[in-house]
Structures are given as structure tokens and as C-alpha cells.
Amino acid sequence: MKKTAIALFAGLLFGAGLAISGMADPQRVQAFLDLFGAWDPTLAFVMGGAMIPMAIAWAVQRRMAAPVAVSRFDLPGTKTIDRKLAIGAVIFGAGWGIGGLCPGPAIADLAIAPAPAAMFIAAMLAGMAGHAITNR
Amino acid sequence: MMLPGFPDAMPLQGLAGGLMIGLSAAIMLLALGRIAGVSGLAARATGLSSTGAPRSVAVAFILGLPLGALVISTITGGVQTTFPVSPWPLLIGGLLVGFGTRLGSGCTSGHGVCGMSRLSPRSLFATAMFMAAGFVTVGLLRAGGWL
Fold this sequence. Notes:
The structure holds two protein chains of two kinds. Chain A is mainly alpha-helical.
């Protein structure tokens, strides 16, 4: 119950941050990627802003034996840079450029522009299902 | 505040929203011991992944995203969004984003926000790759006259 409430609050804060920062707008995100058009650097400010609390959080995390609300940290431990990581990132980046949307803003946009957001999310879930099927 | 040379940029809103996103990810890390990776949590919430966060945590975080956007939209009287007019960029973009984020184990939040701030070599590499792919893709769309 407590864990669920914390996750809901974190999601709410994340969605609010996306909406305030302009990142809910696919056109603005695409404009960041549009180096030869009317380039919009806003996304760099968002990334920079997000780095500050997270850099502090990682420094704190290294000194903690366990998280506050659960018994242990469950963090990615993979170190190797492999072909899957490279190809996956390139495919994701291409889709990000085409639609101007990544998963967070797309889901947050369900509250702002439900019809196009739902269309993107339906395709995104199909892509995820496609991966799940081909990697069984 | 305007950024000289970039009339459309929103540096202060960007920083403020970014701080909120970072704080959200910090809460996920320090309270729940997890990466705030939206693609992974979305896959988990919808049952398309059998590993990762507890289902309830994933569902709650994912539900929070539109709720947070709704709060801001209500307070400010509306959030500006301009979507592609044609459904094709949404459908093709969505398919690629879904498949790519699962194959590459993350998106802008997991690799970008959480992984880069951890100085994870995998995430630094992935972020460089998806940023580069995004720049090239939009450059090609512009060269082809689609933008």
C-alpha cells in the first residue's frame, strides 16, 4: 500500500514535470532533434535539471544499506555494451524522431491529447509485444 | 525568460520541469530502490514484461504520469501540444519506440535521466546512440521534405 502510494506520487511528479517543461509537446521534442530547422534547446535544460537531484540521489544511494520503503535495492547490474543495446537504442531514437514522443510524454499526454497519445501508445505496446514474442 | 537566439525555447520551465523529473526519479531510487524507467515500467504494468518492479508499483507510477499532466493542465489552463497531423508518424514512431526500448533496455528516463546521472557506461552509450539516431532521423525527414 505504502509502496504503491509512493510510486503513484513519483509518477504524478514525473508527469507534472513533463507538462511544465514543454516535453509533453511532440513538436517541441522534435524541434530539439531538428538541428537543421528552428532548433529548440529546451530538452537540454530538462535533462540538465533532472541530472541535479539524480546525481545527489546516487551519491546518497551509495551510502545507504537499503532503500527507505523496501528491503533492498534492485538496480541494473549489466556492464557490457552489446549489439542489442546499440540496435535497440538506434531503433528507439529513430521512432523518437519520427513521432516526437518517447514513452513518458506519450503516457502523460493521455490526459492532454488523448486520441493521438492513445494511437502512439497502442503502436508502442504492439512494438513491445513484438519484442516479447521474438525474444521468448 | 527568453533565451537569446531561440525565441521558442523555455529554459526556466525546462529546468523546473527537469528538477521535478529528477526528484521523481530520486524518490523511486531512494524509497523504492528502483530505476524510474518509463519503458520498463510500462511493459511491466501492461504485463508485457515478467521481470522488474512489482506490478502494483509499475501500474501506480504509470497512472501517475497522466494525473500529473492533468494537474498542471488544470492549474495553468492548458498544456500546449502539437501532434503530427497524419497518423503514420504516431504509428510508425510508436512501433519503433516500443520495440527499440525493450531491445535496448530503456528510454530517455531510464538510460537518459537515471543511467547518465549514475555514469553507467551502458546508459551513456545508449543515450548517445538514441540521441544520434534522433538527430539523423529528423535530419532525414527534413531533407525529404516531410517536416
